[in-house]
Design goal:
Layout: E1 3-8, H1 18-26, E2 43-45, E3 51-52, H2 67-72, E4 73-78, H3 89-101, E5 107-109, H4 110-113, H5 126-147, H6 153-170
């Protein structure tokens, strides 16, 4: 799956929400589908940063509202209502960790792919991750630059090429 579609639960409660969402989805999500299908997200992040992995990426789930997007994306949901509140720092750290660990796949908002209007995920979460990504790349750049004296041949060429690309990106 190429894309990650960002969602929020639209629930203002600060209590854990994974089980509540799982039950809602398993009971048919208010008539959107038949009951028994289980939670339709691939990743779920609670307010405290706890990450759940309810579905493998090999499973196509109904999270975007579009069968085309469901086939080429994974749904990542954060607990909360981001129309009226901000994600917690722990949620943003967990979201960034997932994104980084998966090689920074393209992030899209549910509102950008759903065929009918939705406010989900309430706010564009991508700018909230930009600072973390820049800090991460700057940190990795320092490590790479420190490795130059110990590198030779093809490894050195690749390292210098990567350093150049990252420096241009950070400018």
């Amino acid at each position: 799956m190429i894309f990650r579609v960002l969602h929020h639960t639209a629930d203002k409660s600060t209590a854990p929400q994974f089980d509540k969402v799982r039950r809602y989805h398993n009971n048919g999500a208010g008539g959107k589908w038949r009951s028994g299908y289980g939670i339709q997200y691939h990743r779920f992040i609670e307010h405290d940063g706890t990450v759940f992995f309810p579905n493998a990426y090999s499973k196509v789930t109904w999270h975007s509202g579009s069968s085309e997007w469901n086939k080429k994306s994974a749904g990542w949901c954060l607990a909360g209502d981001f129309r009226n509140q901000s994600p917690t720092e722990k949620q943003l750290d967990a979201l960034f960790g997932l994104w980084r660990d998966e090689g920074f796949p393209p992030l899209v908002l549910h509102s950008e792919v759903r065929p009918t209007p939705t406010a989900c995920p309430g706010v564009d979460l991508r700018p909230l991750l930009d600072g973390r990504r820049l800090s991460y790349l700057a940190e990795r750049l320092k490590i790479a630059e420190n490795a130059i004296p110990r590198s030779t041949g093809l490894r050195l060429m690749r390292l210098l090429r990567w350093i150049d690309r990252v420096k241009r990106y950070l400018e």
